[in-house]
């Protein structure tokens, strides 16, 4: 009997067909009602169910492994992240895994009975304001699904008021969906968890494990919200904190002058170079040092200029990057399966890359290695499918 291929994904083997099917029908946020709901490729479920059966029955096949399914909707062609298929619990587990084994592990908590699994201790913020309506007062409650860690409610609310309203993560609003989408886009689970990747060979698995270990040690960071000049200090509402004994003294060489003690120190945003008011919160990055600060709206990815979700960044070339673009700056990302490529044998066309087995037409799925192909707006097509799209 033939040997089972080594690229069976443990996460897929544990997944039931019902779980795969349950993802169907989730509305697309990008299509604004024109998409009927998330529809995976038909062969996606078939391939997964076949693998499940094989793992249960211990059956071996010589049949080649089908291409990794694209992480897009068959109905509208939008990405999974546009359908927000993750839950709060999945997000917290993902961030917990990302931060564990790093110096930010204090932002995680051990799951009871979870065999070492850690979960993100997400800071939710609930604001309740009484509204007087005659003799029957009511309460207006606003829940922020995420707030900066380690801050007072007053400072947290000040921070939120500086964020554009459409991006404030208030439960049930576009801002909350925007945050969940950014968690999927900027921090793909398959950029940190090898078990969520498909088809990694043994040497590629070792390369990825080292890759993740290295970025956790050298680049990963979580921004800190504080008033100007108070980065790295204990927080206490309404009080200027004393520096802990032995703490580094910050010389504001670029933010003010020490020559004239009568002049107030002027704090300047690292990105826009605008002044940061002393009573308005800023974001600090310990990777950058506490002599630098950013306005909350200026703490963005150096590549895509999008706000860094949950203030999670990767430090590179003197600037913060989102996880997606940091990883892509070091290794190519497959345009077919969206995973980082750890093989040295892959297909590259201009600025795009593919695993060899994923270099297929996005219309008819035929393998295009050694065949004619056309790349239009990032879409890989065979000549026949390209012609039918134009007609």
Automatic annotation (TrEMBL):
What Pfam families does the record tag this protein with?
A: LIM (PF00412), PET (PF06297)
List the biased-composition ranges (Basic and acidic residues). 234-246
GO BP terms: namely: positive regulation of calcineurin-NFAT signaling cascade; regulation of cardiac muscle hypertrophy
Q: Keywords in UniProt for this one?
A: Cytoplasm, LIM domain, Metal-binding, Nucleus, Phosphoprotein, Repeat, Repressor, Transcription, Transcription regulation, Zinc
Please list the residue ranges that the record marks as compositionally biased, kind Polar residues: 251-260
Q: Which GO terms describe its molecular function?
A: transcription corepressor activity; zinc ion binding
Domain PET, first and last residues per copy: 125-232
Highest rank taxon of the organism: Eukaryota
Please give the residue ranges the record annotates as the region Disordered. Answer: 227-261
* Record bears the keyword Repeat: yes
The cross-references to InterPro entries, in alphabetical order and at most eight, read: PET_domain, PET_testin, Pk/Esn/Tes, Znf_LIM
**Where does the record place the LIM zinc-binding domain?**
267-332, 333-391
What Gene3D superfamilies does the entry give?
A: Cysteine Rich Protein
Task: Report the principal subcellular site.
Answer: cytoplasm
- Kindly list the places in or outside the cell where this protein is found, as annotated in its UniProt entry: Cytoplasm; Nucleus
**What is known about what this protein does?**
Transcriptional cofactor that restricts GATA6 function by inhibiting DNA-binding, resulting in repression of GATA6 transcriptional activation of downstream target genes. Represses GATA6-mediated trans activation of lung- and cardiac tissue-specific promoters. Inhibits DNA-binding by GATA4 and GATA1 to the cTNC promoter. Plays a critical role in the development of cardiac hypertrophy via activation of calcineurin/nuclear factor of activated T-cells signaling pathway. Scaffold protein that may play a role in cell adhesion, cell spreading and in the reorganization of the actin cytoskeleton. Plays a role in the regulation of cell proliferation. May act as a tumor suppressor.
Q: What is this protein called?
A: LIM and cysteine-rich domains protein 1
């Amino acid at each position: 009997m033939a040997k089972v291929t080594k690229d069976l994904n443990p996460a897929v083997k544990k997944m039931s067909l019902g779980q795969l099917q349950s993802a169907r029908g989730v509305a697309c946020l990008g299509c604004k009602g024109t998409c009927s709901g998330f529809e995976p490729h038909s062969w996606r479920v078939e391939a997964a169910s076949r693998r499940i059966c094989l793992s249960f029955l211990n059956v071996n096949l010589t049949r080649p492994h089908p291409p990794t399914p694209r992480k897009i909707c068959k109905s509208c062609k939008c990405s999974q992240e546009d359908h927000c298929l993750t839950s709060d619990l999945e997000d917290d587990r993902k961030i917990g895994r990302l931060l564990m084994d790093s110096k930010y592990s204090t932002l995680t908590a051990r799951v009871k009975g979870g065999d070492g699994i850690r979960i993100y201790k997400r800071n939710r913020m609930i604001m309740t304001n009484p509204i007087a309506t005659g003799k029957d007062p009511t309460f207006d409650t606003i829940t922020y699904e995420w707030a900066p860690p380690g801050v007072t409610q007053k400072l947290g609310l000040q921070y939120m008021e500086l964020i554009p309203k459409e991006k404030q993560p208030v439960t049930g609003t576009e801002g909350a969906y925007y945050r969940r989408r950014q968690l999927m886009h900027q921090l793909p689970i398959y950029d940190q968890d090898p078990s969520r990747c498909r088809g990694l060979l043994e040497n590629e698995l070792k390369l990825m494990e080292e890759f993740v270990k290295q970025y956790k040690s050298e680049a990963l960071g979580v921004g800190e919200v504080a008033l100007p000049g108070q980065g790295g200090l204990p927080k206490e509402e309404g009080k200027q904190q004393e520096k802990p004994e032995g703490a580094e003294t910050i010389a504001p060489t670029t933010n003010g002058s020490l020559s004239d003690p009568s002049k107030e120190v002027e704090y300047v945003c690292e990105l826009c170079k605008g002044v940061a008011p002393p009573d308005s919160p800023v974001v600090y990055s310990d990777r950058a040092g506490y002599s630098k600060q950013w306005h909350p709206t200026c703490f963005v990815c150096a590549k895509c200029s999008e706000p860094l979700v949950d203030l999670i960044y990767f430090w590179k070339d003197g600037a913060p990057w989102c996880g997606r673009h940091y990883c892509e700056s070091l290794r190519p990302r497959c345009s077919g399966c969206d995973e980082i490529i750890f093989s040295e044998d892959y297909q590259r066309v201009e600025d795009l890359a593919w695993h060899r087995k994923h270099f297929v037409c996005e219309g008819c799925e035929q393998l295009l290695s050694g065949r004619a192909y056309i790349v239009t707006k990032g879409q890989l097509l065979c000549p026949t499918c390209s012609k039918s799209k134009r007609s």
